[in-house]
Structure formats: C-alpha cells, structure tokens
Specification:
One of its GO terms (biological process) is response to stress. InterPro entries: HTH_MarR-typ, MarR/SlyA-like, WH-like_DNA-bd_sf, WH_DNA-bd_sf. It contains six helices and three strands; from the N terminus they run ααβααββαα. It is about 60% helix and about 10% strand. A hairpin with a 2-residue loop joins strand 2 and strand 3 (about 100-105). It is mainly alpha-helical. The chain has helices at about 20-40, 45-60, 65-70, 75-85, 110-130, 135-145, and strands at about 60, 90-95, 100-105.
C-alpha cells in the first residue's frame, strides 16, 4: 500500500510512513515472527532458536562468542542463555582452558528440539518469502545482507 506524492492525505512534509524502510522491515518481521511462533515447536523465540542452532552447528562456545555469532548484545545473550538453561535445553560448564569463562553447550533435549525446529524454521523462511518469485527472493536476501 504505497502513497504517491506530497498531496497524499497521509504525507507530512513528504514523509510517507508506508514507504519507510524501518516500517516495512518491522511489518515483514512481524509476519515472520507470527509464522515462526505458529510453526516452530517448543515455544522457541527466534533468538532462542538462533542460539540453539549455532551451538548445534559450531559446538560449545563461550557466552560472549555465542552472542556475537548471532548478533546479540551481551545482556540479551545472558537472558536468552539463562532461559534456555532453565528449560534444560543448554548447560554451562567451566572452560578447561580459562577458569574465568564458562562454555555453553546443548543438552540432549536441546539437540533433539533443535533438530526438530530446523525443519520447521525452513518452512518459516519459505512461507515468509512465498509472495516473491525466486529471483526476487535472491535479490531481497542479497540486499538485506548488504545493509546488515
């Protein structure tokens, strides 16, 4: 729903909310989040899934490394890690190479849920991009990577 020109009833000094990148990204994210909540098992949030997937992919990591690998700040990472520990999906243990650091790793329950969730997460991506043709999907993903 695009509005054309400054004569549009919604335009204020040439600003049209429906044409702004932040507004459109938020709407796209809301759509993706709804699909994620509906399709991914275990009541995982997208951030929880990202941490679990990264641990499944790369193995144990420090909390700091883990957060950076999924573009989360330290405070958010700590909260997500704490919630996943409480749910029994990950565990922390002292790093044998550095006593000041703890390693985060998947529990067997975390591994099983991650395996199941990966299949569903692929469906979320497919459903999110469904309105686009293949070439448009490739372009969108390429452009998003460029601005990230």
């Amino acid at each position: 729903m695009s509005h054309d020109g400054p004569d549009s009833p919604d335009a204020r000094n040439g600003y049209v909310l429906d044409d702004q990148i932040g507004f459109l990204l938020r709407r796209a994210y809301q759509r993706n989040s709804t699909l994620f909540a509906d399709l991914v098992p275990g009541k995982l949030t997208a951030m929880q899934f990202a941490l679990l997937f990264r641990l499944a992919q790369d193995g144990p990591a420090s909390q700091n490394q883990l957060g950076r690998s999924v573009a989360m700040d330290a405070a958010t990472t700590k909260g997500v890690v704490d919630r996943l520990v409480t749910r029994g999906l990950i565990r922390t243990s002292p790093d044998p190479g550095d006593r000041r650091r703890h390693l985060v790793s998947l529990t067997p329950a975390g591994e099983a849920l991650t395996d199941e969730a990966v299949r569903s997460a692929s469906l979320v991506s497919e459903a999110t991009l469904a309105p686009l043709r293949e070439k448009e999907r490739e372009t969108l993903l390429r452009l998003l990577r460029k601005i990230c």
